[in-house]
Amino acid sequence: MNGKNKKRTNMVKWIKWVKIIAFSLFIFYILGYCYISYTHSSNNKNHRKLRSIKYSLITSYSFAIYHDHLQELNYCILRNLLVKNLHVWVLLDQAAPSRQCIELQEHLQDMSTYMKDWTDTHWDKFHCQYRIGDQPSYYDLVEYATTIPSEYIIISNGDIIFDPTIEYAVNLDKGTIYAMSWSNVASKPAWLQIDGQPETTIRDSLTHNSMCLMPVDPICSEIQTFFVINCWPKRLYSIDSFLAHRETFTHMKNLGFKELNKRKDQYLGFYKTNRQGSEHAFVGAVVAQGRHVVNACKHIKTSHMHYAKKTPQNHPKEPLYTKYGIYDPDANKVRNKHISYTDYYNKHTYPLPLGI
User: Fold this and answer.
1) CATH of the domain at 180
2) Alpha-carbon distance 262 to 22, whole Å?
3) Number of other CB atoms surrounding residue 41 within 10 Å
4) CA atoms of 336 and 173, how far apart (whole Å)
5) Do residues 293 and 177 both lie within one domain?
6) pTM of this structure
7) Domain of 17?
8) Do 225 and 175 belong to one domain?
């Protein structure tokens, strides 16, 4: 009997432990299922959040830029983050990335305390990514634009401030790109503590503090010395920004995005965004690949923020020659190609964006 009782007791203990283990496994299963469900739900929410981005502004940034203009760029980032539905993607040029993106946001946070309309919810729209090496080229920006989960992409100079008129983008057709130049000069807040005044002339031509003048402005009836003053609809000789559907930038080849050494008739590397004529080279390159570019500065208003004195390092004056650029590589001196207002072009013709 003692042996049988001992076996029965061991059997009861074994069954008890089996139940405990089974119950524990059940609990682990429930917890694991809840965790996976939560994570999947969270990821879906984040995915939907990314997919719901409507406007994305891409701009390059470098701590090597001289102090006063860097402060202007910082101010423009904050002002653009205030625009509804507009995300800002900063490509930070850094040879050895460590904490520079964090330091940039910390500095922007300090500056934001001076802005009365600022709330920390705007940081959800701020994105900083390192670019190891040199300033990005226009082709780099095009390739980067295709990776952003956004409906519309804006490629722009860093000293441009946007406003709600970007909503005009709803009129965009696929394959069409809006080109814009600034409509007015942004006011300079005292707390920014930068010196200088905005330029009132460009190559001896008056600007009237706008590079998007309407036909009624007296300047638009005057003959310009070098065709640099913009008058909507037929003169867009200075461009700051481009806006398009993200899909418009996909499947672009590097055709037309390289600098041409006209003396040796050979192509060099990809051109950067701050070269004289680079915006028009970009227009020529995308038109050559089947896109349509129009001047939308009448409808999309932007402000220019540049009081700081320009330096040759940050604003090289040597004109840029490319296969589809605005400058005629066969001319002995700097000269524009013959201007057309259609997507037709040849070696001596340039498709200047026409106003809509």
Assistant:
1) 3.90.550
2) 79
3) 10
4) 29
5) yes
6) 0.82
7) 1-51
8) yes
